[in-house]
Specification:
Blueprint: H1 8-18, H2 22-53, H3 58-65, H4 69-76, H5 93-105, E1 111-112, H6 114-123, H7 128-136, H8 142-150, E2 163-164, H9 166-181, H10 189-199, H11 203-210, H12 215-232
Parallel strand pairs: 1-2
Helix pairs in contact: 1-2, 3-4, 5-6, 7-10, 7-12, 8-11, 9-10, 10-11, 10-12
Keywords: Hydrolase, Protease, Repeat
Pfam families: Clp_N
Domain Clp R: 88-229
Length: 241
């Protein structure tokens, strides 16, 4: 049996220490409960992804979590759609603009892919993701150049409805997971970059790895930059970009 690493007493103390009045504590407890539910979902998702990489079938995975194969796939396999879930409440303004820019870059395409998301990150030049890419890429502008050469140059009429590809949706899901894993309360452009790299497939991941932007190096750069920002400022809140 797995020992629960987080004890109820620890959570009670954490809430009580942060808030002096009883109603403030209750509000904080409700918020924390939602965060724990989200952590639980991503914990399961992490090990589902691990099982898939190890060759486990969806039937095996479904049996392990007590659902059918179809229910497991519905829950954990992103599908192309025009909507994105979960909501962008955690996202910084810069990270939200990246998604808007991705949609703009895909305006003549039927689908919004990881390549468009990466273009959005590069366009949001003040964000930590763009700065991380600039610090790690083989030479200045290499990532954008390689990415533009990889895009489909075929001109099309703007579609009536754009669909986010499954990989693009997975990258945004993993962006939230990367934020939670690093203990951050926000999702910035840097987490979107880490999400693209965590997917490991698709145009964006291939371009990034080809230009020297690896997942390990990107995470190290992001963590160092955020720690430096916290040490410089009096308020260690939402330091990401």
């Amino acid at each position: 049996m797995v020992t629960t690493p987080v004890q109820l007493t620890d959570l009670i103390v954490a809430v009580a220490t942060e808030h002096g009045d009883v109603l403030g504590r209750l509000t904080a407890a409700v918020r924390l409960s939602g965060e724990l539910d989200e952590l639980g979902d991503h914990l399961i998702g992490h090990f589902v992804d691990e099982a898939r990489r190890a060759g486990a079938s969806w039937t095996d995975i479904g049996e392990s979590i007590g659902v059918t194969k179809q229910a497991a796939q519905k829950r954990f396999v992103p599908k192309e759609s025009a909507e994105l879930r979960p909501s962008f409440d955690r996202y910084t303004d810069r990270a939200r603009r990246v998604v808007v820019l991705a949609r703009h870059h895909a305006r003549f395409s039927e689908r919004i892919g990881t390549e468009h998301l990466l273009l959005g990150l590069l366009d949001e030049s003040g964000g930590l993701a763009a700065k991380t890419i600039a610090a790690l890429e083989a030479s200045e502008g290499t990532t954008r150049l390689v990415l533009l050469n990889a895009l489909d140059p075929t001109g099309r009429q703007p579609p009536a409805q754009q669909l986010f590809t499954a990989r693009c949706k997975k990258a945004l899901e993993l962006a939230v997971r990367e934020s939670l894993r690093l203990g951050h309360r926000f999702v910035g452009t840097e987490h979107v970059l880490l999400g693209l790299l965590a997917v490991g497939e698709g145009t964006a991941a291939e371009v990034l790895m080809a230009t020297g932007v690896t997942r390990e190096a990107a995470e190290a750069h992001v963590v160092a930059a955020i720690e430096a920002a916290i040490s410089r400022g009096p308020r260690p809140v939402r330091p990401g970009a």
